[in-house]
Design goal:
Blueprint: E1 2-7, H1 12-23, E2 28-31, H2 42-54, E3 60-65, H3 69-75, E4 83-85, H4 89-97, E5 103-107, H5 113-125, H6 132-146
Parallel strand pairs: 1-2, 1-3, 3-5, 4-5
Helix pairs in contact: 2-3, 4-5
Length: 150
């Protein structure tokens, strides 16, 4: 499995802590930046990770900004991306089981490293249930098509 990992300056520390954690689970990490705590714009890194996932160059993505809010909004602008901001294990599991989230979003100033690892683990170990949930994902895809700017 290959995961694209990205953050802005507010999520840099937490992103960096996730690299060895993921590698320890035999997951290949594509680090999309940022590479320091210098101020940067989160949409740039949301786009990098989202495109890697949308184009099939990564199996999934993880994004981190200060709260997770801005970077999740930006990532969800890329067609085919279902970025889910989570703060507890139940949300992490449900984001995969019910929403088939292909990008997990965390708040670097909201959760600690241990919690982040628990959330990532729950998300990675969950499986999309399909069934009634697929119908809803199909409707999301229809909305993307309906409102796609050309």
């Amino acid at each position: 499995m290959k995961i694209a990992l990205g953050s802005d300056h507010g999520g840099f520390g937490l992103k960096q802590s996730l690299i060895p954690f993921l590698q320890g689970r035999d997951i290949e990490v594509a680090d999309a930046g940022t590479n320091s705590e210098d101020s940067v714009d989160y949409p740039d890194f949301a786009e990098r990770v989202a495109l890697l996932v949308a184009h099939g160059e990564a199996d999934a993505g993880i994004l981190v900004c200060g709260t997770g809010i801005g970077i999740s909004i930006a990532a969800n602008k890329v067609p085919g991306i279902r970025a889910a901001l989570v703060t507890d294990v139940f949300m992490a599991r449900m984001s995969k089981e019910h929403n088939n989230a292909n990008v997990l979003v965390l708040g670097g100033r909201v959760i600690d490293e241990t919690t982040a690892q628990e959330l990532v683990t729950a998300w990675l170990e969950a499986s999309f249930e399909g069934g009634r949930h697929q119908k809803r994902l199909d409707k999301i895809a229809q909305l993307e098509q309906k409102y796609r700017c050309s």
